[in-house]
Amino acid sequence: MNDADFLASYDPHAYPPVAVTVDIVAFTIRNGALNVLLVRRACPPSEGMWALPGGFVGQWEDLPTAAARELAEETGVATAHRRLHLEQLGTYGTPDRDPRMRVFSVAYVAFAPDLPDPVSGSDAREAAWVPMDERPAELAFDHSTIVADGLERARSKLEYTPLATKFVGEEFTIAELRAVYETVWGESLHAGNFHRKVLSVPGFVESTNTTTERGGARGGPRAKLYRAGDARLLHPALLMPSREETVR
Amino acid sequence: MNDADFLASYDPHAYPPVAVTVDIVAFTIRNGALNVLLVRRACPPSEGMWALPGGFVGQWEDLPTAAARELAEETGVATAHRRLHLEQLGTYGTPDRDPRMRVFSVAYVAFAPDLPDPVSGSDAREAAWVPMDERPAELAFDHSTIVADGLERARSKLEYTPLATKFVGEEFTIAELRAVYETVWGESLHAGNFHRKVLSVPGFVESTNTTTERGGARGGPRAKLYRAGDARLLHPALLMPSREETVR
DNA sequence: GGAATAGTGTCTGTTAGACACTATCTC
DNA sequence: GAGATAGTGTCTAACAGACACTATTCC
After folding, report:
1. Are residues B231 and A243, on separate chains, in Cβ contact within 8 Å?
2. How many CB atoms lie within 10 A of CB B21?
3. Where is the Nudix hydrolase domain (chains A, B) (predicted)?
4. Do A137 and A120 lie in a common domain?
5. Same domain membership, residue A171 and residue A152
6. Helices and strands in chain B, H and E counts
7. Which of A79, A129, A159, B13 is buried deepest, with most CB atoms within 10 A?
């Protein structure tokens, strides 16, 4: 039998129904804290519980496209937002994770600089940026696990990629970059050493030859401004100070 | 409406049919070369083409379970093979990647020490270990992309995890471990420096206080034997010599 | 004996991290 | 002026990589 004959006789409905969704763990930094985007579910199952934004993948839709669309619907951020980074996190498919049917969720992580307050989505769900350490202990489905995995991804990607530049504006100071690391890692870093280290990694940042308009709010000189460089990997990497303890 | 009422009225068949498969990129080292497990498709679509082992996820089956089952069916390796490492690689869902219907494939990577020749699977497909540099230029579906992604995963995981110990037997010499790195990275490493480095990473290997029965085939003293240690991350990491060139 | 290999010693340049210090700015 | 911050200098311990060397074993 050739492919054409085979396809003509193939009946997709003969198999038990499954569904594929995308869920997005969107991170941003607000008021010096790492925030995650959550929505309150407006319909069953788990009506009223907080959950990750997400939804079913359209029939002709690519996975990254679906993730960008769902995120845009929740945040009002244009799909082609310039400084948005979106990457696949993993797929969650435990048989009983959704009571409706067998649902596989392809999770994405998104990183963005301080975004506006989310608009209520088209399906009228309440949406909000929630500081990570104030997030509900229990989220719908297995979303707590997905958020934890997304955080771990963010923490480790800061080490060996220029991901931190996605959390700040087009132009930024080294101190702002350091604040990103300190916020996501939850540790304070030595300002002087961090400064020298960042500048020593080829392609991490490049100078704009400009400075901030004013010094720090509580004093200090004007800081030089940088923009993201062309490196895709940091070499040498910036390792978390607490890495050694998590090795075993 | 509460969850119970909602679920009673929910019809999964109302949505367009999609399917979820698992595909496995299984790596092993044979005759000093990195091999990948491929099967020749026995039925349409792409009948006769080489492809990754894999198949549809059972209705009550977990994703890792499905991956282990598919791999076992192709290789004859017991599902609970002691020294097999299996991890999720990513999900591939381009709308037209399978002509039958919308198919999402959750890819897994498997690493194992020299495995026996695969037995033909229950569905009578021909299966074989194929050296990576002799693999067909074109595989069925988007499997060439998946293999490339799997290789990249293997290469980078060698750097910062004890993955290499999954490619060797229960007890191994430092030279065997070095051969794994050289094979996967495709670069020769300095024997003396590698030796000292491996022993200096806490928890990477632990001594068995025994040596090989004989020296090397072409001379040399008996080598000490080691087994895998309890480290989950290598600190400091073993970086690929060519890392710097791939940074941009 | 000759050749190959296991494992160690030593040296150099680079890096991480600690500490100190100066210059600049806000209040 | 007081206090905070940006950015640099310097020192030490650790590390990567190059090279050399010894000891052991196979052929």
Report:
1. no
2. 19
3. 17-153
4. yes
5. no
6. 5, 9
7. A129
